[in-house]
Write a structure and sequence with these properties.
The chain is of the alpha/beta class. The protein has one domain: 3-Layer(aba) Sandwich (Rossmann fold). It has an eight-stranded mixed beta sheet with strand order 5-4-3-6-7-2-1-8, with helices on both faces. Helix 7 links the parallel strand 4 and strand 5. Helix 3 packs antiparallel against helix 6, helix 3 packs antiparallel against helix 7 and helix 9 runs parallel beside helix 10. The longest helix has 17 residues.
């Protein structure tokens, strides 16, 4: 998994940070933990407690059940959901937290109680998994489709998550709202749209000095080049580029 992040500054103020990342690529070290939901969850670089593993199991069960009635994910096997969705979401945490601690100025790098909006949440990825792994965070799931929002509300209830809100609206509308513009410490997006479009959706939601993290495909370099103008216009620039390799 390759990850890159952005930062910027002007004469008058600190600018929002953009943090970009590729989707997690499943390796053999993850496949060997696919026997059960709890085993796969505990294999992550971000370990989960038994109670958190149970929450993940409840999520996966709900996802696969509802997926029979609506299109939530193309992955229909429990083991693949664990590796391609849950592990992928958890893989975001270490680089996100490193970048936040290094770049945050208003919070002194403190990760407790930060606010994160998952833009185009879909089936709740990565937002619901991050809410399980970091219960002190305040997570907002932004999804425009009412049917998917109904699933997200159900999943939040089943998983007994008290740190999640579901917002049913379009990102371009929410970004113009006084209630949400520049209101979040972190904006995250996974497999939603091309990066230059994502930047226009997500950066207006991020406070000055915050982060934007996006999960992309195997090679994001063309998207990054194509997005540079939009990113600059919106007041952000690249922070870093790193690669996280799967163990084999």
């Amino acid at each position: 998994m390759s990850l890159c992040c952005c930062s910027g500054a002007s004469r008058r103020l600190l600018l929002p940070r953009l943090f970009l990342g590729q989707q997690h690529q499943v390796g053999r070290s993850l496949l060997q933990f696919r026997a059960t939901s709890s085993a796969a969850a505990s294999s992550s670089a971000t370990p989960l407690s038994p109670a958190q593993q149970r929450q993940v199991t409840l999520y996966v069960d709900a996802l696969l059940d509802w997926n029979q009635r609506m299109n939530l994910t193309a992955v229909t096997d429990e083991a693949e959901v664990m590796t391609r969705h849950v592990e992928d979401s958890l893989a975001v945490l270490p680089p996100l937290e490193r970048a936040y601690r290094a770049q945050s100025t208003s919070h002194g790098g403190d990760m407790g109680g930060i606010s994160l909006i998952d833009v185009g949440s879909g089936a709740g990825l990565p937002g619901l998994i991050l809410a399980v792994a970091r219960p002190s965070w305040k997570i907002t799931l932004l999804e425009s489709m009412r049917k998917r929002c109904t699933f997200l509300e159900h999943a939040v209830e089943v998983m007994e998550l008290s740190n999640v809100d579901v917002l049913c609206d379009r990102a371009e509308n929410v970004g113009q709202s006084h209630d949400f513009r520049e209101a979040f410490d972190v904006a995250a997006a996974r497999a939603v749209a091309e990066l230059k479009i994502l930047a226009e959706y997500c950066l207006p939601l991020v406070r000055v000095g915050g982060l934007f993290i996006a999960a992309k495909g195997h090679d994001p370099h063309d998207e990054i080049r194509n997005a540079k103008a939009a990113v600059h216009t919106l007041g952000a620039s690249m922070l870093d580029l790193c690669t996280v390799c799967d163990k084999t």
